[in-house]
Amino acid sequence: MTFPPVCRLAPSPTGAQHLGNARTFLIAYWSARSQNAKLILRIEDIDSPRVKPWAMQQAIDDLAWLGIEHDGDPIVQTQRVGHYEAVLQQMLKDDRVYPCVCSRKDIDEAASAPHEHSMSSMDVPHDSHQNIVEDSQSNQPDMFVQAETTIYPGTCANWRAGDAMPPLGSYCLRFRTDPRPMILHDQIVGRVQCDPGIVLGDFPVTRKTGVAAYQLAVVVDDIDAGVTEVVRGDDLVASAFRQRQIYDYLGETPPAYAHVPLVVGDDGRRLAKRHGDTRLSQYRDQGVAPESIVAWAASTTFGHRDDFPQSQVTRDWSLARWHHEMIHQFEWSAVSRQRTIVPHPSVNWFQ
Ligand code: GLU
Question: All domains of the chain, ordered by start, with CATH?
Answer without folding.
Answer: 6-75+262-350 (3.40.50.620), 81-214 (3.90.800.10)
